[in-house]
Specification:
The structure is a homodimer. Chain A is 21% helix and 37% strand. Chain A is of the alpha+beta class. The longest helix of chain A has 20 residues, at 171-190. In chain A, 42% of the residues are buried. Chains A and B meet through strand 1, strand 2, strand 3, strand 5 and strand 6 of A and strand 1, strand 2, strand 3, strand 5 and strand 6 of B.
Chain lengths: 196, 196
């Protein structure tokens, strides 16, 4: 069913100008014109680089979590590792790099679980979710300035339960777990019962 | 395992000042002090009201979706209905209201599926996910200014597949589906096989 005969129109972007710049994003104002109404409106956008979040699975089926103080929440937040993708860097390379720098865990291979728009209403960037299997703690930490991170490994089923019960609250972590659940069910069914 | 003996410290917030104001959020600069290093740093925050996103299930097990032009993405985005919670409004009331205003679908009851932080790193608000069962198209639309929405109803399993395959890309919609999947599996097992 559709609510109108023609459907919503594609607005035309006329211009975009920077309003403010921060360390991790720019606030811009974009002028758009509606194609039929011809009206012009300004919409505020948060423009930032693409992000990567990593589901790192240890050989004993635990997920690598990081606990850190988060300024938006003004509190600690338990999350999967993640960060900003460098220019010309692939999501898979960025995933392995951020995992190593933030947690010291190293994995040989990475695969893409899925990609989302953090918020298509006003954020311009994408966030990629990367699965790293057989991750082991073997590298030195390389935290960014202001990073101070507690690293934990938690059994997969416990992590899923922590997301469902509100212990893990970051929406991008929850979204990553949505993508991880289906391959995880397949992995579980291929492993010996005593190992899951 | 833990990466340090004492764990990460809780930063102390000294002040916060508005940098820019937009229709849907304020950009602020918050000065925080690290309790041990005594260093002060400014962190940029996006301060906005809490949001609600609604999983509205029709009597024939379809989810109500909205397709609209999104300025952050500069493209159309297929999502579940959602919006901003009014002051003093409960998430459940806001969910029923936004569903009715955006899609014309009305449900008798609403229940909370889960709550997330859209981005604890720099966003201060929460997003609540609300389940509305037995939703039927029975109210007039009441779109906000600039809203122009195509309403569709899509079978639940197709919606889940659309999220997994990247047709639905909004991270908050994907997170809502994470919370919805477990009650959905229980609902399915309680319904007659031919009705799912």
């Amino acid at each position: 069913m559709s609510s109108s005969a023609h459907g919503p129109d594609r607005w035309e972007k006329l211009s975009e100008a920077k309003v403010a710049s921060t360390r991790i994003f720019d606030l811009t104002g974009a002028i758009y014109r509606h194609p039929r109404r011809k009206s012009e409106r300004e919409f505020s956008l948060i423009r930032s680089r693409d992000w990567v979040n990593i589901v790192a699975l240890t050989p004993d089926n635990k997920i690598v979590l990081v606990n850190q103080f988060r300024f938006g929440l003004d509190d600690f937040s338990l999350e999967i590792p993640g960060g900003i993708i460098d220019e010309h860097e692939s999501p898979l390379h960025a995933g392995l790099r951020e995992l190593r720098e933030e947690t010291g865990f190293v994995g040989a291979t990475a695969q893409l679980l899925g990609t989302v728009s953090p918020n298509p209403a006003f954020q311009t960037n994408r966030c990629h979710f990367v699965l790293v299997e057989n991750a082991t703690a073997s590298a030195d930490l390389a935290w960014d300035e202001d990073e101070e991170i507690e690293v934990r490994t938690v059994p997969v089923e416990d992590v899923l339960a922590m997301a469902r019960s509100g212990v893990i609250t970051h929406s991008l972590v929850v979204a990553a777990l949505f993508f991880f659940e289906e391959p995880w069910r397949k992995m579980k069914s291929q492993k010996a019962p005593q190992s899951v």
